[in-house]
Specification:
Blueprint: H1 9-18, H2 24-52, H3 59-70
Helix pairs in contact: 1-2, 2-3
């Protein structure tokens, strides 16, 4: 299943689960994909905030660190 433009990880997750046969292994695989989408969305949002504030220097590294500090298990 492909992530559509302007679609959140939660929206993607709901549609993927709705359209998929309901077995636990498949649901876990879909959940893992949704978590990866959410991580990328958080990193992208954090990175764009640095760019907008003209702090683009190492924005990508900072965004990854922000995700790891706040959301990684």
């Amino acid at each position: 299943m492909k992530l559509e433009d302007k679609q959140t990880a939660v929206e993607w997750l709901f549609r993927a689960l709705w359209d998929t046969p309901k077995d636990k292994l498949t649901w876990w695989a879909i959940f893992d994909q949704a978590m990866a989408i959410e991580k990328q969305q958080i990193i992208d949002a954090h990175e764009s905030s640095y760019i907008e504030m003209n702090l683009a220097f190492r924005a990508g590294e900072r965004a990854e660190q922000y995700y790891d500090d706040n959301y990684a298990n």
